[in-house]
Amino acid sequence: MTTTFGELRRLSVLDAAGAHLGHVEDVDIDPSDWAVRSLVVRLERHAAERLGAKRFLAPSFISLKIIHVHAVGDAVLLRETLDELAREMSGNTTSQVRS
Q1: d(CA 66, CA 80)
Q2: How far, CA to CA in Å, does 43 sit from each of 30, 31, 66, 84?
Q3: What is the pLDDT of residue 96?
Q4: CA distance 45 to 57
Q5: What is the pLDDT of residues 20-78, one digit of tens each?
Q6: Does the 7-83 domain belong in CATH 3.40.190.150?
Q7: 13 falls in which pLDDT band (50, 70, 90)?
Q8: Which of 34, 54, 56, 83 could disulfide-link 48, Cβ–Cβ 3.0 to 4.6 Å?
Q9: Residue 92: φ, ψ to 5°
């Protein structure tokens, strides 16, 4: 089954516990094979603060690698909770804060 960018854009992003983290704003595509490598997620304030991505008077975004996505349907469901994602992000570069 395929999903179009129009269907993906603005979908809610939920962590493994069902907490709302934000919504899909964009995607990062590898032009060599046209595969989606990551989702650009516009974060809710609480998620941005927990992930260390909070910006003063501006929206916060994160580039979330596809390996973190468990399923896509009415929402994007992640494999990890927000706390697990924050711990993982502090230790490596599987996802990154974007400006």
Answers
A1: 12
A2: 23, 26, 16, 16
A3: 60
A4: 11
A5: 999 999 999 999 999 999 999 999 999 999 998 877 778 899 999 999 999 999 999 99
A6: no
A7: very high
A8: 54
A9: -155, -170
**CA distances (Å), 12 to each of 34, 56, 78, 93, in order?**
23, 23, 11, 23
Residue type (1 letter), 36: V
Q: Rounded distance, CA 17 to CA 82, Å?
A: 8
pLDDT of 2 above 80: no
Distance CA 47, CA 78 (A): 13
What's the full length of the chain, in residues?
99
Q: Scan for tokens 């995607």, then name that residue.
A: 27
Give the amino acid at 60: S
Residue 41, both tokens:
């997620």
